[in-house]
Automatic annotation (TrEMBL):
InterPro entries: ATPase_NBD, Gcp-like_dom, T6A_TsaB. Signal peptide: none annotated. It comes from the Bacteria. This is tRNA (Adenosine(37)-N6)-threonylcarbamoyltransferase complex dimerization subunit type 1 TsaB. Gene3D superfamilies: 3.30.420.40. It holds the Pfam family TsaD. The gene is tsaB. Residues 34-154 form the Gcp-like domain. It comes from Streptomyces oryzae.
Amino acid sequence: MLMLALDTATPAVTVALHDAEGDRTLATAHKVDARRHGELLLPCVDAVLGEAGRKLAEVTDVVVGVGPGPYTGLRVGLATAEAFAAALGQRVHGVCTLDGIAYASGLTEPFVVATDARRKEVYWARYADARTRVTDPAVDPPAEIEAAEPQIGRLPAVGAGAVLYESVFRGVRRELPADQSAAALARLAAERLARGEELLPPRPLYLRRPDARVPAGYKVVTPR
């Protein structure tokens, strides 16, 4: 099983090629630029295939982070993953982006993952350990999270959102990865598939409406 994993739900454009049978990450590419997901993703895919000396036709499974994340960046990864899977005639598996960050932490105690959702909000969820999420992903202002769950400040916290709002996530673990890792996403997907678990469909987990709006007073022009 040769997995191509990718995620564009955060400012990081991250891609990995993973040999699931040998439990080895063959190559990775990682760029952080919140405005260039569409430009960076395919070159990153080319880079990992070239580094590993493998061809796209050899890929048996595509893994993609489904968010939560901002509309535009998230769609880039999902559309690309589905295009690859369709072209290859292979499966595409969705994994919650927060789960990938949690898995990369390796923590064995309860903790929280938070990513930057912009608008002074974070996407977040609580975990019992690196493999076990105990709440649904949510999007909230950090102050509201603290008011509703005062214990949040006492939990270890990982992710760029936790770093950004350290006054709320006071247990932030700065020594742990703050960004998504496609290598961790692939390893987590491989573990779940080996246990016979059903992964998520490749559908975006937005949690809120896109920023684009129809202008006020917009007039529809109809032909005469």
